[in-house]
Specification:
globular; two-stranded antiparallel ribbon; quinone; NADH_UbQ_OxRdtase_su1/FPO; transmembrane helix; mainly alpha; 13 helices
């Protein structure tokens, strides 16, 4: 306890409270700065992929362009649709943005360090069920999107909200099943405990299938391309935030990019060692001590952000039926089978019947089987689409042949119950006249010769 004087009153404020406030403010500032940087980074990387220049006017190399865009959004006119449910319309952006910040509270971004002479961990709060807390908070954020679509009083935002709710249900299940394998290996649901359990081996190696499933699911959870169906501008104008302007639209934008950072940080924590240094840097004894682990964590985070941008710049958007089929018919069944396999392997390892030499080949074989199943499903889907297209073309051709004689040869649509009528060729009223090379009939040439 320390002695403080605030507004002329003597008070005692514990150092743990001050350190928590400092870490909370630092975490908030880091997320806001990362959002501004990620927007700039995305625009620069996509422009590089598409051989464009990108933002390069506001600030050095355009680094302040995101800040300028934020100021522009704040100064825009705030328009509320006449048919909107105004209290819910105002509440929806807040429901999307606040859970995005809260979810990052349990992510460890470094080990224990010294701040103002006091030892503290680089984590805002360490809960024994930290992963479940993240899942719960992120599921609350979906209400903002659903309510935004419903309260706008417009058709396209409503469709975007419905799509987003179905998307969350589909991919939250696969995401939760991918975490179950990590819980079996680490023996804890605490994020700091999971990072500590990866001191020897990152879980992306023994739990490679869980990592792949989570990476696919996290792209679907964040509504990012190629899974950005709730805000597909080609078919829904802008999706759930079509009717939003000014700061309320900026809150949706902020929530999307903070969720991108949160799911990437969770992937790093669960499967890529958290703040631990990668090999061969881990051979250095001081790599995982002090403030250095923050550097490794940020490097891993930027790599994941680059992967998100890479996907957006290269892959086309899926159809909605393909997207739902991937979640329900591929990811969830594979997650269930893989979880069963992980439980069996873990039990055999606990009783001593399996060691590391047996574990790695089994995991690699399971990964190869997973890839083969995906390829087989894709080939089957393509063959089915090809067969459907051929049958559809044949039916269309038969229909055109049936309607060919309607209307005396003119493209007249049939009436209900109308059948093709047999058409007999019309007899010629005049004989066909032969034409010579000069363009005249033989009678005309004979007449010209007599003249």
């Amino acid at each position: 306890m320390d002695h403080w004087v605030i507004n002329g009153f003597d008070t005692h404020i514990p150092w743990w409270f001050l350190l928590t406030v400092i870490k909370g403010v630092a975490l908030f500032a880091m997320l806001v700065v990362l959002t501004l940087f990620n927007i700039w980074f995305e625009r620069r990387v996509v422009s590089w992929m598409q051989m464009r220049i990108g933002p390069n006017r506001v600030g050095p190399q355009g680094l302040l362009q995101s800040l300028a865009d934020g100021v522009k959004l704040a100064l825009k006119e705030d328009i509320v649709p006449e048919n909107a449910d105004k209290p819910v319309f105002w509440l929806a952006p807040v429901l999307s943005a606040i859970p995005a910040f809260l979810a990052f509270a349990v992510i460890p971004w470094g080990p224990e360090v010294s701040i103002f002479g006091h030892r503290t961990t680089l984590q805002l709060v360490d809960l024994p069920i930290g992963v479940l807390y993240i899942l719960a908070v992120s599921s609350v954020g979906i209400y903002g999107i659903v309510l935004a679509g419903w309260s706008s009083g417009s058709t396209y935002p409503l469709l975007g909200g419905i799509r987003s709710s179905a998307q969350m249900i589909s991919y939250e299940i696969a995401m939760g099943l991918s975490f179950a394998g990590v819980f079996l290996y680490a023996g804890t649901m605490s994020t700091s405990g999971i990072v500590a359990a990866q001191e020897q081996t990152w879980y992306i190696l023994p739990l490679c299938i869980s990592g792949i499933i989570y990476i696919i699911a996290m792209v679907g959870e964040t509504n990012r391309a190629p899974f950005d169906l709730p805000e597909a501008e080609g078919e829904l104008v802008g999706g759930f935030h079509t009717e939003y302007t000014s700061l309320k639209f900026a809150l949706f934008f902020l929530a999307e990019y903070i969720n991108l950072v949160t799911v990437s940080s969770l992937a790093i924590t669960m499967f890529f060692g958290g703040w631990r240094a990668p090999w061969p840097l881990s051979l250095w004894s001081g790599a995982n001590q002090g403030w250095y682990p923050m550097i490794w964590f940020l490097v891993k985070l930027l790599i994941f952000v680059f992967v998100f941008i890479w996907l957006r710049g290269t892959l086309p958007r899926l159809r909605y039926d393909q997207f739902m089929k991937l979640g329900w018919k591929v990811l969830i069944p594979v997650s269930l089978v893989w979880l069963l396999l992980v439980a069996v392997i873990r039990q055999l390892k606990n009783v001593g019947d399996m060691d590391q030499a047996h574990l790695i080949p089994i995991c690699l074989g399971a990964a190869a089987l997973f890839v083969l199943v995906l390829v087989a499903l894709e080939v089957r889907e393509r063959n089915q689409v090809s067969r459907d297209r051929r049958s559809r073309d044949a039916a269309e051709l038969a229909r055109e042949e049936d309607l060919e004689g309607l209307g005396g040869g003119f493209p007249v649509p049939p009436m209900p119950g109308q059948q093709r009528a047999a058409i007999t060729p019309r007899p010629l009223r005049t004989p066909i006249l032969a034409v010579t090379a000069n363009g005249h009939t033989p009678a005309e040439e004979a007449s010209d010769g007599r003249q």
